[in-house]
Amino acid sequence: MPAAEPAAPRVAAVVYNPIKVDIDLLKSTVATEAAAAGWGASLWFETTVDDVGQEATKKALDAGADLVLAAGGDGTVRAVTEALRGSGTALALVPSGTGNLLARNLDLTLNNLTHSVHTAFSGTNRAIDLGVIDIERAGGARDRHVFVVMAGMGIDAKMIQNTDDDLKAKAGWAAYVQAIVTSLRDPNELHLRFRRDDGPVLREKANTLIIGNCGSLPANILLMPDAVIDDGLLDLLVMRPGGVLGWLRIWTKVAWVNGVVRRTKLGRALVGEHRNDRELEYSTVTKFTARLTRAEEIELDGDGFGQATAFSAWVEPRSLDVRVPA
């Protein structure tokens, strides 16, 4: 009987943002780690202004990639994830941006290229939830997107709209300070009718609405302390600050109580369970629909997505595999 043909080596594809990465170093590191793990030569797909990652990822899947490495910022990761949805192909993260939000929430290495690439080829898969959102525009057009961290309206979406991209490239998250100040001067509130899961339709007036799949942000900010990335739930946060003092109270709760005190077992014992109040209200949903009285800015995973007049968001439990250290 003739000997069986040896199995073809697995092949990874790298979808990378050329502005965010040192491509020569990245190619060298990927080649070394792939060979060490017994994988074949990797495929390379560059993102562009017109394609931030979705089409590049589809090409990688069509080429037979067994694994897709996303090397870029949060926008690249979100776009790659959107194209991977439903494919069964795992995602590996090579953090290369300012926020690195998904990697941060998975406690992955943020500034060690070799470790990140080694994890891609020698790690194990962790299944996480995906957030999916249908956005309705003025005029009735709809478009569907994925988010892995959070979707938001209000101050966070306005802050992103007001951020200077050139300053962000030079100063990182410090660039958001000016944008926050500008956004806080905006007196407009969100006026919406909404529904949690199959509950009744309610009315709400708020400054900010955030739907989160996970809750950690840069600068040690724990925006949603109870959010878990694989619990099959989305966490809903509504902010209703009463003027400048209200914002100061919210900032104290988010940056100090959530970001510092609640990160330790002793701290959690001291402050007790989180309690909602008028200014900061948390809940969990599997689906959330809303319609606004006027078009409002919306953001997904830290990128602006224009204006929405309505949206429907839901969770797809444990529907994406992400490579983590073995």
Automatic annotation (TrEMBL):
One of its GO terms (molecular function) is ATP binding. Its cofactor is Mg(2+). PANTHER family: LIPID KINASE YEGS (PTHR12358:SF106), SPHINGOSINE KINASE (PTHR12358). GO terms for biological process: phospholipid biosynthetic process. It holds the Pfam family DAGK_cat. Residues 7-137 form the DAGKc domain. This is Diacylglycerol kinase. Keywords: ATP-binding, Kinase, Lipid biosynthesis, Lipid metabolism, Nucleotide-binding, Phospholipid biosynthesis, Phospholipid metabolism, Transferase. One of its GO terms (cellular component) is plasma membrane. It comes from Subtercola boreus. Belongs to the diacylglycerol/lipid kinase family. The keyword Secreted does not apply.
